[in-house]
Specification:
The protein is mainly α. The protein contains four helices and no strands. Helix 1 packs across helix 4. The model has no long low-confidence stretch (mean pLDDT about 85). It is found in: Golgi apparatus membrane.
């Protein structure tokens, strides 16, 4: 159902990016061995989370504010 609701889709993408970046910080070998293919999506999400971390953090705060207070 997150596919049909844009806000839910953004929430799932943000959670995926944050989770992959956290897993890569704890155990980098898990995501580094799968840089290509279908599992490469998780490596790419981890790279986005690492390189764009201030922007991802701002997006998480804005999303949390909108979920808690706007809806």
């Amino acid at each position: 159902s997150a596919i049909f609701n844009f806000q839910s889709l953004l929430t799932v993408i943000l959670l995926l990016i944050c989770t992959c970046a956290y897993i890569r910080s704890l155990a980098p070998s898990i995501l580094d061995k799968n840089k290509t293919g279908l599992l490469g999506i998780f490596w790419k999400c981890a790279r986005i989370g690492e390189r764009k971390s201030p922007y991802v953090a701002v997006c998480c705060v804005v999303m949390a504010f909108s979920i808690l207070f706007v809806q």
